[in-house]
Amino acid sequence: MEIVGDYEYSTKDLIGHGAFAVVFKGRLREKPSRTVAIKSITKKSLAKSQNLLGKEIKILKELTELHHENVVALLDCKESANNVYLVMEYCNGGDLADYLHAKGTLSEDTIRLFLIQLAGAMKALYAKGIVHRDLKPQNILLSHSGMKVHPQPSEIKLKIADFGFARFLHDGVMAATLCGSPMYMAPEVIMSLQYDAKADLWSLGTIVFQCLTGKAPFQASTPQALKQYYEINANLSPKIPVGTSPELTDLLTGLLRRNAPERMNFDTFFNHKFLKRPDPPVSQSPLQTDILYGSPPSLTKVASSPRVVTPMKMASPSNSQPVPQNIPMHSDNSAESSLEKDKTG
C-alpha cells in the first residue's frame, strides 16, 4: 500500500488517469471502511502553469469549509519529492456523463431533482465569488448511500467536482482566459471575449438541454467551427422539443442566450419556478413517483475527467509532507492561455 498522510491506496485501484494526474481509490488507514479518492499530480507537469493548482486548492478549502453536500470535499493535501496529492471525497455513482450515456434522456421530474441540487451548489459558489469555468457532465459526480446497484433518482446526490479551472471572480470583474470544454463553453468564452460568472449559467443550460434531448443545443464538427457559428449568428435560440413544459422552456431560453447581458442572471435562476418542488399527487407515494424515472446502471467511474487520458508511473509518497500554502501548482493536463486579463467594469 502507498501512504499519503492518514490515507493509503493500492496502485491497482486506479479509477482515473492522465498525462498530469492519476486518481486512485483509497481509504483512511485507521478506518479502512472509509473510502476516499486520491488524486496524484506529478510536479514535472506543473512547470508551465504553476498557479492553477494553488488556486484549485485554495478554492476547494474554502468550499469544503461550507460542508455543502453538493460540492466534492477536499479532505487533505500532501506532497512528496515528485508528486502532489489531493485526498478527495469519494463518489460511488460515477459521473453524469456516464448516467446520460446509459439513460439517453431524462424526464423533467428527474431533471428537476438533479438541477435543484446543482443550483444549491452554484449558489454556494456564487456567494463565494467562484466561477467554475468547466461545468460539464463529466465534472458532476454521483453518489448514493447503501448497497443498491440501481438507486432511484431521488436517492442520488450530485456533486460538482474538478475545480482545476475555477477562480475567484466577483461582481464587476471580467476574465478573458480561454479554458474549459468547447461544447459547454459560453459563446463569449469560445470567442475569446471578456466574460463573467454568467458563463457558468450557459454551461449549466447546455447540461440541462443535454439531459432533456440527449445532445448539445448548438453543435459543430470542431471547436473552431463552433466559434465561427457563434460569431456569425448573433441571435440564437435553442430548439426545445415540442411538449416541454413552459417552465423548463423558459429556463432553457433564459440560460442559453447567446449574448451574456441578455442571459438570465443568478438570482432569477436560483428562484426560477422550474426549481420549485411540485406537490406529489395524493394517490401516489414518493417511491412510486421515483419508479417512473427509471433506474441508472451500475457505475464505477469516479473523480476522473476526460481531460485526463494518459497513465503515468507513481512515486512512493511514504514520506509525504503537508503542501505549503504558497506553492502554486497546476492540477491536470488541460491547456489554459498564459494570458489572463482581469478588468473591473
UniProtKB/TrEMBL annotation:
Residues 9-275 form the Protein kinase domain. CDD domains: STKc_ULK1_2-like. It comes from the Eukaryota. Keywords: ATP-binding, Kinase, Nucleotide-binding, Serine/threonine-protein kinase, Transferase. Residues 307-345 are annotated as: Disordered. GO terms for molecular function: ATP binding; protein serine/threonine kinase activity. The keyword Transferase applies. One of its GO terms (cellular component) is autophagosome. One of its GO terms (biological process) is axon extension. ATP binds at K39. Belongs to the protein kinase superfamily. This is Protein kinase domain-containing protein. It comes from Acanthoscelides obtectus.
